[in-house]
Amino acid sequence: MQAKAGCRVTVPFGKQQRVGIVVSVSQQSELPLSELKSVVEVLDDEPVFSTSVWRLLLWAADYYHHPIGDVLFHALPILLRQGKSASHAPMWYWFATEQGHAVDINSLKRSPKQQQALAALRQGRIWRHQVESLDFNDAALQSLRKKGLSELACEAPALIDWRDGFSVPGDRLRLNTEQATAVGPIHSAADRFSAWLLAGVTGSGKTEVYLSVLENVLAQGKQALVMVPESA
């Protein structure tokens, strides 16, 4: 498997093996082959970072003069840093079989937990991770399964893009003249890096300026991070 920039690999490190991230691929090296070590395993078919995130991380490492390895690894979930699979684990759920829908539920009156479980399954599927919060347990569902009344199935988790249905509910507040004056230049500079300092006394409407700017950013399919200082 050919390693690509942004993919994880396992490499020899002393007597151990460590997870590394490919930053670039080259056909040449300034070091002699005798000083190079081979990759043990390529862990990913495709980069674990999106193109935009990859560019951001490289920029951050350069801008803040921070080691690229630290920047890349801190952008990964802990399990990916440990070399675990980057694929989405299937999600398991219980459902009532045709026999489970057809059987007389009163036939389970001597097994109240199974009766409760089957009644719930008739309302719709139950994700396996939800069972512990219900009035019955996995054992009841397993018993129903042995009777042919329930079954387990799995499906890949759906990846939902929040941008598809983004909208701002409710009526928007109308900005006053000073707020609009502050928002205008910020909107105009949204396509490039810029820093702004908004000054105003308490109650002057600074928060509404922030919200207006955030709404514009989100409407463009971009993301925003709001950091609120902790007040003593």
TrEMBL record:
GO biological process, one term: DNA recombination
InterPro entries in alphabetical order: P-loop_NTPase, PriA_3primeBD, PriA_3primeBD_sf, WHD_PriA
Class of enzymatic activity (EC top level): hydrolase
Pfam families: PriA_3primeBD, WHD_PriA
Keyword terms: ATP-binding, DNA-binding, Hydrolase, Nucleotide-binding
Every Primosomal protein N' 3' DNA-binding domain range: 2-77
Segments traversing the membrane: none
Enzyme Commission number(s) of this protein: 3.6.4.-
Stretches assigned to the Primosomal protein N'-like winged helix domain: 90-152
GO molecular function, one term: 3'-5' DNA helicase activity
Listed name of the protein: Primosomal protein N
Origin species: Leclercia adecarboxylata
